[in-house]
Design goal:
By secondary structure, the protein is of the alpha/beta class. 35% of the residues lie in helices and 19% in strands. It contains ten helices and eight strands. The protein has an eight-stranded parallel barrel, surrounded by five helices. Helix 2 links the parallel strand 2 and strand 3. The chain is globular, with a radius of gyration of 17 Å. The two termini are 13 Å apart.
Length: 234
């Protein structure tokens, strides 16, 4: 089933709350972007406010609180960070339904493969694991790891961690290739998804579209979301 997933990239935890409040009752899945200032130049919550020592982050992982409106959403965490593997158990405490690892953030692919293979059945049954990669990535590497994950995320841009970048048309080729070679695997797209690129991405075979600035920078964010969702009807 094809879907639109609003993406939230914010430095301030209050802004994450505000955007989630706006989306309540309108969508089930929401993507939260994590940027650490190391893998990508930008920083988002909690890295913009103390990292794992951020007060709100600590309250959640200590089970004093949950993620805002956790009852209403399936959270998808896009981990544009260097420590996603090392601190995987910590991030799990935030309660993601999906978690996305970036191929370019892995220093040792053999060790990353071993990590994916070592995930226990509880995690596999409750959290979908995704693998994100840039347009120019060698798809042979993606194919090698594809059997270890639940879905792939084709990036539509050449630099992750920033919203509003130009679309790389190589993404369309990647989607078509992967859909032909791996027909049963879900394909998500993130980066430069707008009302111009979305129809092409869906036609190429994308299953889920992560949409950030095209929603949040619109004069009417909910109206923009509805326009994207209308594309799914065709």
């Amino acid at each position: 089933m094809k879907a639109i997933t609003p993406a939230i990239l914010e430095q301030d935890f209050k802004e994450i709350k505000n955007k989630l409040a706006l989306l309540r009752g309108r969508v089930k899945a929401v993507q939260i972007d994590f940027c650490d200032g190391a893998f990508v130049p930008s920083r988002t919550w909690p890295f913009a406010s103390g990292g794992i020592n951020d007060p709100d982050f600590r309250k959640i992982i200590n089970e004093e609180e949950g993620m805002p409106y956790w009852q209403d959403f399936d959270f998808e965490f896009d981990m544009m960070v260097m420590d996603a593997v090392a601190n995987f158990d910590l991030y799990l405490k935030l309660g993601p339904r999906r978690i996305i690892f970036h191929l370019a953030a892995q220093k040792n692919l053999e060790e990353f493969e071993e990590f994916l293979e070592s995930l226990d059945n509880y995690v596999r049954d409750n959290v979908e694991i995704g693998l994100a990669f840039l347009p120019q990535t060698d798809l042979a590497v993606v194919m090698w790891l594809a059997s270890k994950v639940d879905f792939l995320q084709c990036m539509g841009i050449d630099q992750v961690g920033f919203q509003g970048q130009s679309f790389n048309p190589k993404t369309l080729e990647n989607i078509k290739f992967l859909k032909e070679k791996l027909p049963g695997l879900a394909i998500a797209v993130d980066g430069s998804v707008n009302l111009e690129t979305a129809p092409e991405l869906l036609q190429a075979g994308a299953d889920r579209l992560g949409v950030g600035s095209a929603i949040w920078k619109a004069p009417d964010p909910i109206g923009a979301l509805e326009k994207f969702e209308s594309l799914l009807q065709y």
